[in-house]
Amino acid sequence: MTTIRPFRIDIPQADVDDLRDRLSRARWAAQLPGEGWERGAPTAYLRELAQYWADDFDWRAQESALNSYPQFVTEIDGLDVHFVHVRSPEPDAVPLLLTHGWPNSFVEFTRTIGPLTDPRAHGLDPALAFDVVIPSVPGFAFSASPRETGMTTARVARMWATLMDRLGYDRYGTQGGDLGAYVAPEMALAAPEHVIGVHLDGGIGMPTEADVPAMSAEDRAQWAQMQQWMTGGVDHHALLRAAPQTFALGWNDSPVALLAWMMQKFQDFAYTAERAEDVIDRDHLLTNIALYWFTQTTGTSSWPMYDGLREGGFGWPTDQNLVPTGVYGGGSPLMRTLADRGNKITHWPAENPGNHFVAMEQPAAHVADIRTFFAELR
User: Fold this and answer.
1) With CB atoms 3.0 to 4.6 Å apart as the test, which of 70, 102, 233, 274 could cross-link to 268 if both were Cys?
2) Is residue 325 scored above 80 in pLDDT?
3) How far apart are CA 67 and CA 8, in angstroms?
4) 10 Å Cβ neighbour count for 333?
5) Angle (deg, nearest 10), helices 179-190 and 153-166
6) Residue 311 pLDDT exceeds 80
C-alpha cells in the first residue's frame, strides 16, 4: 500500500477522436439578448473556441509536455493519489507541496515548476530552490475519487502529510490558492512539527456579518466591495451543493457544455480582464479543460461544494497560528486585522499582480513571492 508507482499520461487515440467528433457535431443554442457575458458564455465566442479545440489544439503536444514532469501514483487512505514530483538539481532544496484549486488541476502550476526547482536555469538565485510535489486532489484528474460522502480539506491535508512522509521529507512548506488555500493551513494543523510555513494566494482574513458592527465607515465600504465581488458571477457553490449529479451528466456527455461551464468560471475568476484568455494562455486553459473531459471528473471533483470545504460546512479557510503564513495578495487593512487574529502573518504584500489563479496568470510574480516568503524560513 505504500508503493510509489511511476505514472505516465496516455489518453487513447479513440478518446481524442471522440472528443473532436462530438465538438464537430455540437447543436448550438441561439444567442440571447444582452451584451458580452451578461447572459453567460456568448455563443459566437464558444463556437470559435470549440472549433479551435477540435481543429487546432494539439492534445498530444500538451500530453508530451505534461509527461516531461515525473509523475507517480501511490495509495493513501484507500485512494490512489496521482502526483508530480520534481527534485531540484540544487543541494539543500526546500521541499514544497502545491495544492491546486477548482476548477483546476495540477496543470495550474506547470509554468512555475521550472523556476521553482531550477532557479539557476531561469536567471534566479540558486541559493533558494525547491523540490516540488503537486498532488491531484481526490476526485480530480488521475487521483481516485472519494467513495463516500464526508471528504474534507482536513482529510486531504492529512493525506498530503502522509505523502510527504512517504517521500522522505521531514520539513517542508505548503502552498495553495482557491481549494488549495483550504488545504495548506490544514496541513500545518495536521503536522505542525513538519510544516515550516504556509503560503496562500488569498482567501484569508475575510470578514463575516459578525464583524460588521465593529467596522469603521471605511471598513464598511470595503466590506460592500467584497460582498459585490463574492456574489458576482455564477455561484458554483450553490449549484454543486444542490445538484452536482444533474450538472455532471451534461458536462460528462457534452464537451461544449463542459467548455461553456469551465470558461464561465475562468471568466468569473479573471476579475480585471475583459476575457480570461487575455490573462491565461488559450492552450493552457484548454489543457486543463481537456483533462477534466478525458478523466471524466467534472462530477467527482465537485465534492468540496456538496460536502463542504471544511468540517462543519463552507466557511473560509481555517486559521492556524502554529507556523508562519504568507499571502500573495494580502488585501485591505481590514482583512489584515482579521487575519492577524488567528494566524501568524509574516508576509502580506499589497501590490502583487493578477486575479484568482495567479500561478497561471503571473507565474514569474508567483514564484518571486513564494521565494520571498520561504527565504526567511529555511
Assistant:
1) 233
2) yes
3) 6
4) 14
5) 60
6) no
Taking the alpha carbons at both ends of the chain, their separation in whole angstroms is 32
The grid cell for 16 is 481524442
| Helix, strand, coil fractions of the chain, as percent rounded to 5 | 45, 15, 40
Mean pLDDT of 219-226: 79
Q: How far is CA 259 from CA 111, 227, 264, 299, in A?
A: 22, 28, 8, 14
d(CA 54, CA 15) in angstroms, rounded, equals 12
What are the residues facing 274 on neighbouring strands? none
CB crowding 100-133: b at 16 or more within 10 Å, else e: bbbbbbbbbbbbbbbbbbbbeeeebeeebbbbbb
pLDDT tens per residue, range 112-138? 999 999 999 999 999 999 999 999 999
Strand, helix or coil for residue 332? coil
Q: Which residue has the cell 488541476?
A: 105
| Residue appearing with cell numbers 495540477 | 106
Q: Which residues contact 171 (CB under 8 A, 6 or more apart)?
A: 95, 194, 195, 196
Contact criterion met (CB below 8 Å) for 357 and 108: yes
Strands of the sheet with 4-7, listed across from one edge = 4-7, 71-76, 79-86, 130-135, 94-99, 172-176, 195-200, 324-327, 344-347
Please state whether 37 falls in left (phi above 0), alpha (psi between -120 and 50) or beta. Answer: alpha
Residue 22: in which H helix or E strand, if any? helix 13-24
| Spatial contact of 276 and 269, defined as CB atoms under 8 Å apart | yes
Which three cell numbers mark 207?
470578514
The pLDDT of residue 299 is above 70 = yes
Distances (CA, A) of 338 to 213, 344, 346: 14, 11, 14
Q: Is the pTM of this model over 0.85?
A: yes
Q: How far is CA 227 from the centre of its chain?
A: 22
